[in-house]
Amino acid sequence: MCNNPPIPVQKVIRVNRREDSGGRPGFCYGAHMSQPALSHQLAALEKELGTAVVERLPRGVRATAAGRAIEADARTALAAADRVVTTGRDVAKGSAGQLRIGCAESLTASLLAPVLRQWRRRHPDVRIVLTEATSADVLAQQLDSGQTDIAVGPTPSRWTGHSGLIGHEDVVVVLPQGHPLADQPAVTFEQLRDEPVVHLNVDNGFAGWLDSVAAQHGVVLTVAMRTRQAVTAAALAAAGVGIAIVPRSAIGARFAGVVVPMDPPLGRDLVCLVANPADSLARRFESAVLSRSVRVS
């Protein structure tokens, strides 16, 4: 194995067909390089290959058999190198690449969808891969493991990387029409003590958080049934299956139930997490999320 440093072939062999001074096919080496630098790089390349690639003539150079043999590969390598530069610049400008986004399920439609709609109009060639999760900690784990580039959701319990604050989201009580608490200006946990609750699944991060908050108020919620999504819990509560305590983002525009705030007010911060702060494409999307006027409270 050769331990010499790799030779920057793209600097040495800008292989462009031309006619040399003798009227025979030849090559033009080292475009945009000074003659001393070209000679040095060319000599290093020939040392690396173990053979000459050009024949030095009084008025120019001519390709050797080895030089002619590597011409096609050199052209391919140069084209690939040029594409690397072009693609990298396009990604940095937001006009190419792939962005892997993680999002809390309850926020996909209400918060993320408007941002994605505008982003797609401005960056149509950026491929979006969306992964939804029911837990902020799962979103953080996906970032740590390299599965996603950016995540939108509540603040995870453990995250030491980059984050931007989107806003604060209220948590509200959903009641069916005609419920005794429907006319209250706000509802306490004590008033919900004996109410059947349409709760979220135990593996949902919001469910565990809500149980802990209720416990701080001396209340253990009475679970009537569980479901995966906050949107479904709100709809079931509106239908009279029980009451639900959900993020406001779970409430649709034409909601049939009654929505009442908690007393004292209950809410959570929503954040945008970025796996690599040096990732210009992810930071562009973060800016789009943070600058978007989305009602979360």
Question: What would you say about this model in short?
Answer:
This protein is an alpha/beta fold and 297 residues long. Helix content is 35%, strand content 27%.
Q: Over the alpha carbons, how many angstroms does the gyration radius reach?
A: 31 Å
CATH class of the largest domain: Alpha Beta
- Helix fraction by DSSP (H/I, runs of at least 4): 25-40%
State the total count of DSSP E strands: 12
Q: How many discrete structural domains?
A: 3
Helix tally equals: 9
Question: How much strand content do the residues show?
Answer: 25-35%
Name the overall outline.
rod-shaped
Instruction: Determine the structural class based on helices, strands and strand pairing.
Output: alpha/beta
Order of helices and strands: HEEHEEHHEHEHEEEHEHEEH
- Amino-to-carboxy terminus distance: 63 Å
CATH topology of the largest domain: D-Maltodextrin-Binding Protein, domain 2
Biggest beta sheet summary: 6 strands, mixed
Taking pLDDT < 50 over at least 5 consecutive residues as the criterion, the unreliable ranges are: 1-31
Strand order across the biggest sheet? 6-5-7-12-8-11
CATH architecture of the largest domain: 3-Layer(aba) Sandwich
Output mean pLDDT: 83
Structure characteristics:
single chain, 297 residues, alpha/beta, Arc Repressor Mutant, subunit A, D-Maltodextrin-Binding Protein, domain 2, two-stranded antiparallel ribbon, 35% helix
